[in-house]
């Protein structure tokens, strides 16, 4: 196998299977990809479009072709020297429905199920109605109403001799010790006899195996038609639409190991950990050895057999102990790697973690992983491409238009309070109750009340600056201490002074002192409180920032994305260099991405919107004019204008950023398709903002008015004037946006780290948030163009078709494959730039053992492009701008990667006008002799 030099992320589902990917391997190899980076492949809920809702971790998803198809894909990859990185879901499984056998077993047997320890369940609930029971919030209405309406039905699984309750797609097993009462209701002596045996299970210490035999016996008896009819007649007595049936079914359900409830109760009453606030995804306790082994058995088998060559860990911060998990995983995969088949031999199994890093936060370097999935790199490139000069004007425009704050952190704090007192209220209460037990365990703190704990804990989490801290037996890690102190100081600004002393206690209880120093009686509850606190701050941050504040604040939407810090609008050149140097030192193989299956805007949509920061005054004028043109179309509802000024301003940004390059307003079919995409984005954006409508309580009047507004803009004949203006404005931004896109692609492929390309993004990617960013990819067009011989000038002139982006990516990735060590081990050297346009140029070198690579790209280039209709800056506009080179390169000759021409350095410097003549991004490398030595 060849070195890991570049990955390509593929989203697998029933409409894009493993065999579909196999047919594309030759294309991916030609593009320069070394490893396919696959979305989760284990068996997910039927019809899953993403694979993160795993129901059976022991086998490859049959909808994707199963393991035979995986073997065919790997064989094709091996033929090209390529590998496979697999995304795995360690934090949760899909629950509810009828497909997860482990979950169904827990419902059936409660704590006695061997799988009860797999899920993160709090069996000892402070709610007496939930003691020893699992809250199952899957009913579409209140419990009593569901029974009255007959939507909860008692069913019989004849083949397996099993009884279960059914509510639409959900299956709730009846525990075998309560079968007796149902069987006795049947007019059949054999069933009544069997009922006595089922009754005996109530007192049997280990009823699991006995119940299996009894159900097999029941299944056998049900093969007799008269017996089956008798039992089905008995089931009719549990028809809850009748008074007697209601009482019988309710009584039976009350004796189960779960309590059925409306989905709306989950936020407040949930007694098991979910993935964020999604009822259908149950948290796993992978820190337990048996759970780790059972959930990873198939993954380990795939690694040992040489089918999987690397791992990506989804939502690492959801785990109780990310560090412990990663270190255990590293030890195991290293042992497995040593025994792989010879044709799959590799030196190292890369492990990447999906981790959101806040400003100033670093991935801990003792986890044994190769880095993150690269969200922070998206942010670093974005900061580089935003003009600080536009911030003030855009903030003013947002403030005067929306009436909302320009302080993103204030939006985030409000959103945190919303989610902690709403969808995550049950998880918050779990932590508060645990801290109450901590307080009660010490005579010096036993008078602290639950109310006081709730107040202080809420403000602490609201002001938390990172997703989570990492607390171990010795206490909170030193690197995390500044973030915790920042949260404490923030809490004091909003908390009554009378509650400040409690913050000191929280500081100690939540990792401020070593657990080892505590009495054994306090150690367990303190550890539990710390763990649940850490598992709460992460989803609170994600729900508040990514899924709420990013849809409420619209100063410039190119700064609102997964892993971004929207509080910061831009950053200087040196900040980007510093991040590259830091990454080269600590995580030189960190994944680098600019587009993912989770992004809110495609990489090229973001790149085009970023240009607005350079043309803020122009944009403000456009917005004011367009709002005047649409004023008569704004509806006035009881709760305000529809759409609101804020929502309309964000819509204008989305249209400017995502307007397809060749979309013509007179093309009715294409406009309808585009309108459908924008409507889909709008529904998600409005509901995620949670201001005028929500997922749980949609405001049909407001959503309808917003829908009509988009249809007016994009489809109605009356909207043609503004539609044409928006299209023209998007076309004005497009060349600079395309140049931004080429820059970010090149930086992703040449700075320290491993570049990750998202499916289809080798052409322009003007997608929006999912599911728009997971639309089918036209790989046929990409296959046809990848080997093209068109000259650079031709590609530039026809840049709308995306071939220029594909060519830049292909040529750079092929260079990486020819010189892998230069990119993975070569040092990173920022290069000084002088002259009149110095601040609009980024230059750096990569060097290893005398081999040199120079990368030169523009930034904030809208003014340099002027009214050019192609993403190429006229060379003369660089004036006297020069790049200083190390003395060792004085007089060196460099080959330009994209056109094969050469340039020479003079007086240890390069003239930018010569370097960026034609294509306005450049990769220069020292010419190589046949034996691999550089020619100086």
Automatic annotation (TrEMBL):
Its EC number is 5.4.99.15. Transmembrane segments: none annotated. Keywords: Isomerase. This is Maltooligosyl trehalose synthase. InterPro entries: GH, GH13_cat_dom, Maltooligo_trehalose_synth_4, Trehalose_TreY. It comes from Stutzerimonas stutzeri. The keyword Isomerase applies. GO terms for molecular function: (1,4)-alpha-D-glucan 1-alpha-D-glucosylmutase activity. Residues 5-513 form the Glycosyl hydrolase family 13 catalytic domain.
């Amino acid at each position: 196998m060849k070195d890991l030099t570049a990955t390509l992320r593929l989203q697998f589902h029933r409409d894009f299977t493993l065999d579909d990917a196999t047919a594309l391997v030759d294309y991916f190899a030609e593009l320069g990809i070394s490893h396919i980076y696959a979305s989760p492949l284990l068996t997910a809920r039927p019809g899953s479009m993403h694979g993160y809702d795993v129901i059976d971790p022991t086998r490859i998803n049959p909808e994707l072709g199963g393991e035979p198809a995986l073997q065919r894909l790997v064989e094709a990859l091996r033929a090209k020297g390529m590998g496979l990185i697999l995304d795995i879901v360690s934090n949760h499984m899909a629950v509810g429905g009828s497909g997860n056998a482990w979950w169904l077993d827990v419902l059936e047997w409660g704590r006695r199920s061997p799988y009860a320890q797999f899920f993160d369940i709090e069996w000892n609930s402070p709610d007496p109605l939930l003691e020893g029971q699992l809250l199952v919030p899957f009913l579409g209405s209140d419990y009593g109403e569901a029974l009255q309406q007959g939507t909860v039905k008692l069913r019989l699984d004849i083949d397996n001799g099993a009884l279960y309750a059914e509510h639409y797609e959900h299956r709730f097993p009846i525990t075998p010790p309560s079968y007796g009462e149902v069987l006795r209701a049947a007019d059949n002596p054999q069933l009544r006899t069997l009922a006595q045996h089922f009754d005996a299970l109530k007192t049997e210490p280990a009823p699991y195996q006995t119940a299996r035999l009894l159900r097999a016996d029941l299944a056998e008896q049900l093969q007799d038609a008269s017996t089956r009819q008798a039992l089905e007649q008995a089931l009719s007595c549990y028809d809850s639409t009748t008074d007697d049936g209601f009482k019988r079914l309710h009584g039976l359900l009350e004796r189960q190991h779960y309590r059925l409830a409306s989905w709306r109760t989950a936020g407040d009453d949930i007694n098991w950990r979910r993935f964020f606030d999604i009822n259908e995804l149950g948290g796993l306790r992978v820190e337990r050895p048996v759970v780790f082994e059972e959930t990873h058995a198939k993954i380990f088998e795939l690694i040992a057999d040489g089918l999987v060559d690397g791992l990506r860990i989804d939502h690492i911060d959801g785990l109780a102990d990310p560090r412990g998990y990663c270190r255990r995983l590293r030890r195991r995969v290293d042992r497995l790697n040593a025994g792989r088949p010879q044709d799959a031999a590799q030196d190292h199994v890369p492990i990447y973690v999906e981790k959101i890093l806040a400003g100033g936060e670093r991935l801990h370097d003792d986890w044994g992983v190769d880095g993150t999935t690269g969200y922070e790199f998206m942010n670093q490139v974005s900061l580089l491409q935003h003009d600080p000069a536009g911030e003030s004007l855009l903030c003013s425009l947002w403030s005067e238009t929306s009436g909302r704050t320009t302080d993103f952190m204030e939006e985030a704090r409000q959103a945190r309070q919303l989610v902690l007192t709403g969808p995550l209220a049950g998880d918050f209460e779990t932590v508060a109750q645990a801290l109450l037990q901590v307080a009660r365990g010490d005579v010096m703190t036993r008078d602290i009340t639950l109310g006081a704990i709730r107040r202080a804990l809420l403000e602490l989490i609201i002001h938390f600056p990172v997703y989570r801290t990492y607390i171990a037996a010795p206490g909170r890690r030193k690197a995390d201490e500044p973030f915790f102190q920042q949260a404490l100081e923030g809490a004091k600004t909003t908390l009554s002074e009378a509650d400040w002393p409690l913050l000191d206690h929280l500081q100690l209880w939540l990792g401020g002192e070593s657990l080892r120093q505590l009495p054994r009686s306090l150690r367990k509850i303190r550890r539990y409180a710390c763990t649940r606190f850490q598992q709460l701050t992460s989803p609170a941050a994600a729900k508040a920032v990514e899924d709420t504040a990013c849809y409420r604040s619209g100063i410039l939407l190119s700064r609102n994305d997964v892993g971004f810090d929207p509080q910061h609008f831009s950053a200087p050149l040196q900040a980007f260099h510093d991040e590259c140097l830091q990454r080269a030192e600590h995580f030189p193989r960190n994944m680098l991405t600019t587009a993912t299956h989770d992004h809110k805007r495609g990489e090229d949509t973001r790149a085009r919107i970023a240009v607005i920061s350079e043309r803020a005054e122009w944009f403000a004028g456009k917005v004011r004019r367009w709002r005047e043109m649409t004023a008569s179309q704004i509806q006035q509802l009881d709760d305000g204008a529809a759409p609101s000024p804020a929502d309309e301003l964000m819509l204008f940004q989305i249209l400017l950023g995502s307007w397809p390059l060749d979309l013509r307003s007179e093309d009715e079919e294409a406009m309808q398709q585009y309108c459908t995409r924008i409507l889909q984005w709008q529904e998600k954006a409005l509901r995620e903002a949670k201001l005028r409508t929500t997922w749980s309580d949609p405001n049909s009047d407001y959503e309808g008015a917003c829908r009509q507004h988009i249809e007016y803009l994009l489809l109605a004949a009356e909207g043609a004037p503004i539609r044409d203006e928006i299209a023209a404005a998007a076309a004005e931004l497009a060349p600079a946006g395309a140049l931004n896109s080429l820059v970010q692609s090149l930086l992703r492929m040449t700075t320290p780290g491993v570049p990750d390309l998202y499916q289809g993004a080798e052409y322009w990617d003007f997608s929006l948030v999912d599911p728009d960013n997971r639309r089918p990819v036209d790989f046929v067009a990409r296959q046809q163009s990848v080997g093209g011989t068109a000259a650079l000038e031709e590609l530039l002139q026809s840049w709308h078709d995306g071939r220029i982006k594909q060519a830049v990516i292909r040529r750079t990735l092929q260079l990486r494959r020819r010189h892998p060590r230069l990119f993975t081990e070569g040092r990173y050297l920022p290069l000084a730039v002088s002259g009149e346009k110095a601040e609009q140029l980024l230059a750096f070198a990569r060097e290893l053992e005398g081999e040199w690579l120079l990368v030169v790209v523009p930034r904030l280039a809208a003014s340099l492009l002027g009214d050019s209709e192609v993403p190429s800056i006229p060379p003369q506009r660089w004036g006297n701008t020069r790049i200083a080179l190390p003395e060792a390169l004085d007089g060196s000759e460099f080959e330009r990667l994209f056109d094969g021409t050469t340039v020479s350095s003079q007086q240890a410097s390069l003239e930018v006008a010569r370097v960026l003549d034609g294509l306005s991004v450049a990769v220069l490398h020292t010419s190589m002799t046949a034996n691999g030595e550089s020619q100086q």
